[in-house]
Amino acid sequence: MTIREIDSQEQPTPDGHLQFVEVGDYTFETGGYLPNVKLAFETWGTLNADASNAVLLLHALTGDTHVARGESAEPGWWDQLVGPGGIVDTDHYFVVAPNMIGSCYGSTGPASIAPDGRPWGSRFPFTTIRDSVNLELRLAEKLGITKFYAVLGGSMGGARALEWAVTAPEKVNHCVVVAACAKSTAEQIAFAQAQTAAIRLDPQYRSGDYYDAASSPSAGLGIARRIAHVTYRSEMELEARFSRQNQHEENPFSGETLAHTRGRYAVESYLDHQANKLVDRFDANSYVVLTEALMSHDVGRSRGGVEAALNSADDVHFVVAAVNSDRLYWPAQSDEIVNHVSHGDGVFIIDSPIGHDGFLTDIHQLGPVLNEQVFSASKAPQGN
Amino acid sequence: MTIREIDSQEQPTPDGHLQFVEVGDYTFETGGYLPNVKLAFETWGTLNADASNAVLLLHALTGDTHVARGESAEPGWWDQLVGPGGIVDTDHYFVVAPNMIGSCYGSTGPASIAPDGRPWGSRFPFTTIRDSVNLELRLAEKLGITKFYAVLGGSMGGARALEWAVTAPEKVNHCVVVAACAKSTAEQIAFAQAQTAAIRLDPQYRSGDYYDAASSPSAGLGIARRIAHVTYRSEMELEARFSRQNQHEENPFSGETLAHTRGRYAVESYLDHQANKLVDRFDANSYVVLTEALMSHDVGRSRGGVEAALNSADDVHFVVAAVNSDRLYWPAQSDEIVNHVSHGDGVFIIDSPIGHDGFLTDIHQLGPVLNEQVFSASKAPQGN
């Protein structure tokens, strides 16, 4: 993404460029505290006169604000849905995509500088999905949006969208939840635990205070990503792509002893590549903070359970979708959502063999449903 | 298990007590070399005059030789199948259970002392399933067994059993393969990679030479076990047992910042417990060696593929079983085995909600099939 600091509203910010807003001090659910929280976000399109055409788009765990290309050179992660003339038509809607608190794509995160001039590091608060919504509510207020026409997200972005609908149902008209769940499951917590433990085990992690060191905990973060990535893909897809093949000329039987580095299987090389890509673009502390936030996800917490919480969002219109081969956010978890909301037409199944990541690669399949149930001309806000 | 070193055959060894045999020098498939390899094993029952009643039982990744209680006080891991009057009736069969090369339950492993007086450590060879069979063939010869009436194993033990049938089909009458596959899949390799990487990341691992240090790589081994254990259980079982519950009075929302230790979810405590149990009983280097061996598993390697390899074992009678909720060794992988063997009656499904570990907890379900197809009186060897 292209970064552009905006100090005044004199010139409109181009679509798909990073902007920042200060949303004040904040005390987190766990008791942690941050002064002067800054949220980064991108926008596309123009807010209409009665602010009725705003759409909130929420990214996944390691995602960023760059949902759509806009006027930048870089592709967005939901270009299939968002753009001029698209399903979420930025010629008609004002799309806002905030970076989640704790992330490393512009909003205040562990790498941000604290008032004492040092990065927050280990002093950064544990964060919940609910905290992120509370802060994004402030962002909406700053932008003059009292109610979003629609809130959409996939994976952790879906958890954020659902939490939005329950925390502030009066501010959400349509809520689109893709490949997510009402509350993180035991298995999701279990895989997350191993990931954060791997990062913390890395001696370069230094308990989270590694920003002034020569090296960062890339090995630990890489292991976390490997674990996560396997859960993002289906067994079938991994087998079809890699089976037991060697990586090119490498020979997995070439290491004589434990002291030797043997050649790799192709799937190992693939996961090394996925790990290296993430390490190059993501901060280990942010990975821990956001993974912990995802573990915390439960729209029913302190609200009498999932059913009561979802019932309370009885004016929100839901579209819930799942990937049929997803083995991290099983389609049955999407069923649990639609079973308890007042307005929702069953679970739309994205048909993809690759697993959870279908919420990115195959999101175009959701286009007709979104068009019909949310963004069609007859249902669109008229204030533009 | 009770350890008893046997120097002579004057007194028969009690059932279910550890014995040792030296099987000579060995060059591994990867080129590594060990002098004077020692294999540990336990036996139950008595070998008959024509040595036709021998049964080989092969343990899983972190398993040991103690398949059945025998005359020891400790329960065995397949007590449901093996014992006097049992399905594998030790009043009629002579059961042999070797510890796999590289393990830490008696056979030569990384913690064993090399000729220079130091543990092998990082000098220990990478090992394959095929290496383990080659060494166990020597054990059989030492014991005077030219052909096993049956070879049985589950999980990695199933891989070992299948490799036995293909490496030495003339030495195997019946082969029983439970919750295993013909070749390790991309996903199995992927999860294994993350596990070995976590161990190697642990600063206490010291590249495998930690035996003289004050501490061992328990954190890394614990993470490996956590990852593995999740794959051993079904999502459904984890959810039913733990869901998002807190661990007793612990509060997962009690940590203010990354520097704090928060309370745990119940599933985290459960996995901590599983990790701690393994760390107390298993060696990290052995875990790496055996995990690498399992990654190497492919009965079709250098044999023209799985189909040709299994076809070559055309005199062996197979019983293949899978756990219906297993998501590490999917039942379809068992189908691949029976589809290519000459004698095999389809896949017997063990009905268990818990996942892969059903090969231990619910193995009794296989009893009637084993009785009918392998161990019934009419089919049993007559030389006793």
From TrEMBL, chains A, B:
The protein's name in its UniProt record: Homoserine O-acetyltransferase
Single GO molecular function: homoserine O-acetyltransferase activity
Gene for this chain: metXA
Subunit structure: Homodimer.
Biological role stated in the UniProt entry: Transfers an acetyl group from acetyl-CoA to L-homoserine, forming acetyl-L-homoserine.
The UniProt record lists the keyword Amino-acid biosynthesis: yes
Organism: Neomicrococcus aestuarii
Keywords from the UniProt entry: Acyltransferase, Amino-acid biosynthesis, Cytoplasm, Methionine biosynthesis, Transferase
BP GO annotations: homoserine metabolic process; methionine biosynthetic process
Pfam family of the protein (one): Abhydrolase_1
